[in-house]
């Protein structure tokens, strides 16, 4: 888990290093330019405060608003129309991915940066396919956030190096089919092959065939190992 207090501390240090006040604003923006308006969506107050402090140190970026849930994000985006939205992936009520999809359904040009401590390659791929402009690990926020905001505003897609490395590892993997993922979710819930077959209305032999494919594709030793790998990579989530 990222140490959220480091965001505020580093922002203060940036100002103090030059002998100025804690949150001196940079002079990179021309006098007549409009700053990039940012909406921050995260259910952790300390992280929102830390991001606000980082933004406050920049002349060409400004905080348009902040909220703590996916449902609030949809309302705030419609009201504020920010240039860039920073969206936490895991939040109560509605997660960041569903909120982003809802926002982009009404506002297709919305530019959303997904922030998360979960950097499994399957989650990243889902977010990017759904329209995320960038995917940033929270641990990289102090060093990479502002450049990511500027890049996204300029129309570039970005993933942090930590995330890109995980994507590269599985880039050539044969992905699980939706049917195999359904079986894997039921395995994770502790169901036997017979119960899985009953719930999915398929034969037990079909279940066994899908389990065999799952183990092969994930390079897993057994069912438990397959579930562990799938959770780590974000292929499935425990409900």
How would you characterize this protein structure?
The protein has two domains: 5-169, 3-Layer(aba) Sandwich (Rossmann fold); 178-233, Arc Repressor Mutant, subunit A. The model is unreliable at 1-6 and 11-28 (pLDDT under 50). A six-stranded parallel beta sheet has the order 2-1-3-4-5-6, with helices on both faces. It is 51% helix and 12% strand. The radius of gyration is 21 Å and the shape is elongated. By secondary structure, the chain is an alpha/beta fold. The chain has eleven helices and six strands.
Brief characterization of the structure:
The chain has two domains: 5-169, 3-Layer(aba) Sandwich (Rossmann fold), CATH 3.40.50; 178-233, Winged helix-like DNA-binding domain superfamily/Winged helix DNA-binding domain (Arc Repressor Mutant, subunit A), CATH 1.10.10.
């Amino acid at each position: 888990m990222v140490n959220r207090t480091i965001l505020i501390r580093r922002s203060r240090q940036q100002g103090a290093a030059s002998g100025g006040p804690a949150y001196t604003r940079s002079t990179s923006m021309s006098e007549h330019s409009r700053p990039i308006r940012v909406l921050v969506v995260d259910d952790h107050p300390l992280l929102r405060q830390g991001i606000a402090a980082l933004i406050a140190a920049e002349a060409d970026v400004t905080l348009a608003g902040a909220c703590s849930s996916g449902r609030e994000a949809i309302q705030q985006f419609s009201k504020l129309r920010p240039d860039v939205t920073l969206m936490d992936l895991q939040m109560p009520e509605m997660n960041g991915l569903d909120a982003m999809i809802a926002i982009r359904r009404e506002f297709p040009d919305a530019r959303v940066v997904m922030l998360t401590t979960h950097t499994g390659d399957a989650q990243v791929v889902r977010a990017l396919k759904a329209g995320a402009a960038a995917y940033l690990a929270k641990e990289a926020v102090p060093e990479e956030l502002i450049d990511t905001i500027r890049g996204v505003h300029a129309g570039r897609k970005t993933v942090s190096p930590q995330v890109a490395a995980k994507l590269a590892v599985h880039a050539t993997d044969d992905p699980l089919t939706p049917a195999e993922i359904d079986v894997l979710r039921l395995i994770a819930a502790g169901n036997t092959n017979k119960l899985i077959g009953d719930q999915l209305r398929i034969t037990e032999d079909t279940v066994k065939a899908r389990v065999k494919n799952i183990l092969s594709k994930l390079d897993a030793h057994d069912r438990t190992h397959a579930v562990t790998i799938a959770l780590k990579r974000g292929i499935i989530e425990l409900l």
